[in-house]
Amino acid sequence: MDRARNSHPRAPRQVPTDVLVWRTGVLRQAGCEAGLAWELAADGDLDLHDLLNLIDRGCPPHLAARILAPLDRE
Questions:
Q1: CA 67 vs CA 16, 17, 46, 51, 60: distances in Å
Q2: Per-residue pLDDT for the chain (74 aa), expressed as one digit of tens each?
Q3: Of the candidates 42, 52, 41, 37, the residue with the CA atom closest to the CA atom of residue 11
Q4: Smallest Cα–Cα separation from 71: which of 7, 25, 18?
Q5: How far apart are CA 29 and CA 14, in angstroms?
């Protein structure tokens, strides 16, 4: 049975404001548009290092975010 399909979606972990600002800046420097950078920075479940590694290897930021998106969310 597929767990992701049958479980309830969960909210991402919260990120403290100072960390949110820092993560957003790092993502903007990596080439993310402002809105996407803020959204990704606010997701405490998203591994920033993995995302940056994909972007550094030429993956567009929006695609890198989709690749790393948790399966237990809508």
A1: 24, 25, 11, 9, 11
A2: 444 455 545 556 788 999 999 999 999 999 999 999 999 999 988 899 999 999 999 999 999 999 998 776 55
A3: 42
A4: 7
A5: 22
Those residues whose C-beta lies under 8 Å from the C-beta of residue 30, and which sit 6 or more positions away, are 52, 55, 56, 61
- Predicted pLDDT at 1: 43
58: number of Cβ within 10 Å: 7
> Could you state, in order of their start, the residue ranges of all structural domains in the chain?
21-68
22/48 Cα distance (integer angstroms): 11
Alpha-carbon distances, residue 35 vs 43, 64, 66 (angstroms): 13, 15, 15
Q: Which single residue is written with the structure tokens 């803020």?
A: 38
